[in-house]
């Protein structure tokens, strides 16, 4: 099977270099690496010549993450990929991530959306992260399943899906139709993709041993800097699915007085 790894990036060049260092240590390397550069013409100089860099223009509404992932996947499929692995630019792959995803896609008897555990790393030391010893830092996010290496566990809740690290077969990608490109900027498109999978009978399956390591970067909780994008995307999701996504963030915004709910709408409080 031909395996492609797709990463969407806008900046975060050092993070992408560490991802490359992780791939160098991978027991099974992808046959094709695709980096989708969102409005970042310098990206080609960040990765080596074995990676194929394709460009994606930004929008006034925010980073077109859904569109960029679709571009990366379609490029990989045109190049003959049977398995498409998506890995966030902030994530360093564990040594067995690529191999476990490829094995899962090859052996699972039906269409599935495969996702691996993600460890959120602390801030790096001056020397950076110990790429050759990441396994000793494995602490999977407690809010999602983390099966033992070699095991596959189907999850009942598709809202657990995240795009930090996941894989699909070529046929499953075509069945799902990619990410909804109406979304732009931060939040919502992941949950939408999981909802599409649920409605089309595609299970979310957690892959033991497909560990990824999320590099530290400053965040706010809730992410107030993305307030407008989150509200816009929440409205899109509500129109499509008749429910609100990202309830934790929306509730926190409301408690802080940043938004108010009016029937089936959310209104941002004027500054």
Automatic annotation (TrEMBL):
The keyword Cell wall biogenesis/degradation applies. InterPro entries: Nucleotide-diphossugar_trans (IPR029044). GO terms for biological process: cell wall organization. Keywords: Cell wall biogenesis/degradation, Glycosyltransferase, Transferase. The keyword Glycosyltransferase applies. It comes from the Bacteria. Pathway: Cell wall biogenesis; cell wall polysaccharide biosynthesis. One of its GO terms (molecular function) is glycosyltransferase activity. Belongs to the glycosyltransferase 2 family. This is Glycosyl transferase family A. The lineage of its organism: Bacteria, Bacillati, Actinomycetota, Actinomycetes, Mycobacteriales.
């Amino acid at each position: 099977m031909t395996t492609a790894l797709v990463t969407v990036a806008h900046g975060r060049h050092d993070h992408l270099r560490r991802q490359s260092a992780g791939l160098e240590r991978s027991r099974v390397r992808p046959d094709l690496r695709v980096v989708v550069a969102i409005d970042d013409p310098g990206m080609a100089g960040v990765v080596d010549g074995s990676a194929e860099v394709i460009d994606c223009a930004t929008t006034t509404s925010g980073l077109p993450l859904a569109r960029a992932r679709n571009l990366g996947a379609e490029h990989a499929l045109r190049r003959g990929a049977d398995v498409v692995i998506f890995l966030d630019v902030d994530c360093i792959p564990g040594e067995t991530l690529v191999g476990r995803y490829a094995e899962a896609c090859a052996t699972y008897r039906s269409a599935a959306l495969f996702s691996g555990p993600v460890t959120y790393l602390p801030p790096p030391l001056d020397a950076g992260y110990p790429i050759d010893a990441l396994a000793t830092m494995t602490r999977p996010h407690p809010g999602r399943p983390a099966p033992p290496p070699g095991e596959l566990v189907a999850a009942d809740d598709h809202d657990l899906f995240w795009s930090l690290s996941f894989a699909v077969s070529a046929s499953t990608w075509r069945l799902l139709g990619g990410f909804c490109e109406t979304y732009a900027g931060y939040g919502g498109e992941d949950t939408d993709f999981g909802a599409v999978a649920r409605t089309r009978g595609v299970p979310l399956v957690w892959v033991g041993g497909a560990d990824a390591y999320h590099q530290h970067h400053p965040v706010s909780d809730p992410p107030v800097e993305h307030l407008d994008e989150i509200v816009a995307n929440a409205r899109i999701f509500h129109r499509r699915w008749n429910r609100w996504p990202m309830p934790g963030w929306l509730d926190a915004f409301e408690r802080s007085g940043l938004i108010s709910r009016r029937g089936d709408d959310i209104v941002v409080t004027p500054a």
